[in-house]
Amino acid sequence: MGDLWRSKSVFLAGLTAIALTMIEPSESARAAPPAEPAIVRLGLLPGGTTSRATAINDRGVIVGHGDTTNGENHAIRWNPGGRITDLGTLPGGTYSYAYSINNRGDIVGYANTASGDDRAVRWAPDGSITDLGSLPGHTGGYAYGINDEGRVVGYAPIRSRTYHAVKWQPDGTVSDIGANSPLGSTSAAAINDHGVVVGVTYAVSPAHYHEAVTWTAAGTTAMVLPPLAGGGPRSSARGINEQGMIVGYSQSGPGSPTNYPIHAALWGPGNSAPTDLGTLPGGSDNSMANDVNAAGVIVGASATSTPGDRSAVLWRQKENGWRIVPLPQLPGGKYSEATAISNSGEVVGEASTESGQNVAVRWEK
User: Fold this and answer.
1) DSSP symbols for 67-130
2) What is the pLDDT averaged over residues 6-17?
3) Strands 321-326 and 21-23
4) CA pair distance 353, 208, nearest whole angstrom
5) Chain-centre distance of CA 294, in angstroms?
6) Local structure of 142: helix, strand or coil
7) Distance CA 3, CA 157 (A)
8) CA distances from 57 to 38, 188, 217, 222 (A)
9) H helices then E strands: how many in the chain?
10) 3 state SS of 3
11) Residue 284 to residue 346: CA distance in whole angstroms
């Protein structure tokens, strides 16, 4: 599941089940148009050629991962000025990945050990790394989200083809929150400061069934979120804000187990039917939402009108529905994805260069 689910309570009242999605109006149609965000390429590790930004906190600190001279990936931290730090690995390990950062500067992800096991890890603000351990009787673990209280969520392998969502408390205590789910396996992607967790339940099978789920702050039972109307049994929850808005994607129409349409989705109050956030005009039926900030601005990616191309996007709620806004690409690039947004509106993610390499980027207002 590791990179498959990459790219990181009270629900927001007043959302309709299905909202109209529209393209942002042209500059000439606005009386006072905001400046278009500028895309900034973040630095690479020495000898590296690729990177990906996965999260940003409200202080402007960005985390992610990138390759090194020997081809292995290392977790990365970029400070607000763009200075890059290699966060390194566990003793004897060869790779690491960072997926979330809180406002205290604590970072979580996973890294391998000298014996080859993948372990959930946390980096302190000073860069020191801690192995978070796994469930009793198990050796592996992956961390994908951390809140400002220091609670961490992710998943752990249980046995062949079975995985459970787990939660680590600030004191290091780890608990299994994923044993009670309809499809056997679970993974947690994000946690807000109220302790509400979101993620996915899935079956490791040729059908690729997976459903978006949420857990209450003290809960150990995964509650399935409703799918889009007319869709199918495949959805995922990938982000949550402090108001309880949950974002991700949901199958939007019929398809085969390996080829089906998905639309970015927003789940509102009371586990009601989700809002279909739609796609860019002219694009194929493919979009996903990765994160949502306190203002309710949502970021993710959508297919474009050019076959095979993909653009980072954000969604803003207007009086007459949700509007989708494409974010700038790198010069000559054909792919980008927005993975996270801070409460100040700074967006980070990944974009391709003219030569086709994918690199970490930041979109500045």
Assistant:
1) E-TTS-EEEEEE-TT--EEEEE-STT---EEEEEE-TT--EEEEEE-TTS-EEEEEE-TT--EE
2) 33
3) parallel
4) 32
5) 16
6) strand
7) 15
8) 19, 19, 22, 27
9) 0, 29
10) helix
11) 27
Residues whose CB is less than 8 angstroms from the CB of residue 202 and which lie 6 or more positions away in sequence, other chains included = 1, 183, 184, 185, 186, 187, 208, 209, 210, 211
258: left (phi over 0), alpha (psi -120 to 50) or beta: alpha
Q: Tell me which H or E stretch contains 188.
A: strand 185-191
Percent of the chain clearing pLDDT 90 (strictly above): 86
Under 8 Å between Cβ of 275 and 321: no
For 276-336, the three-class secondary structure string (H helix, E strand, C coil) is EEECCCCCCCEEEEEEECCCCCEEEEEECCCCCCEEEEEEEEECCEEEEEECCCCCCCCEE
Distance CA 361, CA 353 (A): 11
Which residues partner with 275 through β-bridges?
266
Query: What's the pLDDT tens digit per position in 190-209?
Result: 999 999 999 999 999 999 99
SS3 2: helix
